[in-house]
Structures are given as structure tokens and as C-alpha cells.
Design goal:
With about 350 residues, this protein is mainly beta. The protein contains no helices and 28 strands. It is globular and about 45 Å long.
Length: about 350
Amino acid sequence: MEQRAPAKRIAIGQNSDGRLEAFYIKPDGVLRHNWQNRPNSIWAGEVSLEREATQVAVGVNADGRLEVFYLTPEGEVRHDWQLSPGGDWHGGESLGANGRGLDVSSNADGRLEVFWVGEDGALWHDWQLTPNGDWAGKEKLGDAATDVAVGRNADGRLEVFYLGPDNQLLHDWQVEANGDWHGPETEELSGSGVQVAVQSNEDGRLEVFWIALDGKVWHDWQVAPDGDWSGAECLQVSATRIAAARNRGGRLELFYVDPHGHIRNLWQASPNGDWGSDGESLGAQATDLAVGQNADGRLEIFYFGPDNEIWHNWQPAPGRGPWSTIVHYEGGRPTAGS
């Protein structure tokens, strides 16, 4: 039986000057954002984008302008973009499609490409015709999907991972960088689940993570950059949400919400290497989470706590713990919490 992925209510972008910017949807359904005053620094304070939304994703244009994609309560796929790098926003505009799940990435030539699960349950995409430019129009990629995540191979080819009929894990890829897609015959990976995430290893090999139907977290990885896949392996932890990132030193790190609502993390012992046997608690509870990387290399996680407020936590130094005191901001002023 098909199980749908949870809505993604947080997305993290990085401005051209290195400042992180967080986009999130609070329980009132309004899309908001907050940004660092300076790279690696404190935050300006929450501002509404005055748009109702249910899911959000963010990409970076070739010229450095952030572009945010979101689904309205009616399921319409819309986007908004900065008028200049780090600057003001244009205002929401429709992409002429409806959906219920989305992700976005950049092609090798800088053109953004957005993927979503359509209202018909199929996998769709749309792409910029030129870097920073107009959009081609929607096109169908797969017959059925419930969640989607997109990565980029070492040679620049985008590869999309999605959960298809009966929640099995499928993938499709560009046959050449910036080019057409291998489909319609997508290839099945050995797994099924309710949420999927992908990240690149230091050597360029993609690694995909997913939450299985029983809550266990699994992963699979390319045996060589741009190459074939190793086969599914369980990470021996359980989760309701996952997010993956790469440390400044090259090690992948997985952040997840465990079945009791606690945020935990798990990481590679060395770049491109094996994973630890147990997750470490970050001392907080959450219902959703996302991760970004500061200009100085420190990872920073953002999440909705049990109070449905947005909180964050960060590494004290790139690739190192223990993580800092948990805080959230009210008008730019930090407040400690647990």
C-alpha cells in the first residue's frame, strides 16, 4: 500500500556572500524566511514572504540569486526569486503545475531544474532554458512517485531518486550533463520507503538514504563516481525524518528524528568510508529538520521543535562537536532552550 512522505516544511539556502537563509512554513501555513546578518553570524529576524505554502525547496541561480519553490494549500507549484544576489524578492509566480512533493538542483551549466510529485501521482520536472532564465514547461519523468530527492553526479549529470508504486526506491538520470533523461524505463534500487535523501561523497560518488516502511534507515552508494550501485545496507537506526550533509573534511553526516522525536546524528568515520554503529543525540526534540553549511564550513541544523517554533544548532568548528547550545531567534535576539 502506498505511503506518502511527510511534507518538507524547512529549506536552507546560501546567499552568494555565504550568508545562510532559512525558509520555513509555520502551523499557520505562511512561508517565512530569516537570514544571517553576516556570514557565520547572528540572524536578522523572521520576515513573512506573504505566501501560503505546504512544502518548500530552495535552489541557487548561476548568478547567485536564491530561488524558492513551494506548494500552495491547493497544490499549485510556485516559485519566487531574489531580484539581485542577496536582495529583495520578486513575488510568487506559478509554474503551471500542481503537486505534493518537490526538490530542486542545478545543472552543470547553472540552470535550475525542479522536480515534483504531480497531483496525478507521477514524477514531473521543469527546467530553466538558460542560466537565470525562463522555464521550459512541465514534463513527465515517471509514472508514479510519493517522494523525490535529486543529486548531481561527479560528471555533472543530475540523478533523481524517488519512491514509486508500492513505495519502492527508483532512480533516473541524465544521459549527459545538462541533457535528456535515461527514462522512461527507470531502474529500481533494492529498497522501499516513505522518505528519501541524497548527498555526494568527497570523491563524487552519490549516496542515497531512505526511511523504510518499518522506520529503519537504509543507504546505498555508487561503487565508483557516476557508476553502478553497491546494494542496500541498513544503518541500524530508526527515524521519522532524515537530512544529509557533507562536512568540510569530506565526511557525510546524517541527521534524523528518531521515533521518540529526538534529533540524532550519524557520520562516516572517514571521507568516503564506513559509518558509525549508533546515532548520537543532539539534545533536542523535533518534528521536521533541514541542514545547511556556513561559509566557514560549520554545519547548522534547523528544525521545528515541539512548540512548532523554528530552532537551530551548529557545530562549534567545521566537522567537530559537541554541538552548541540550542537556540531560536525572536527578532534577531537569541534565546537558549533544550
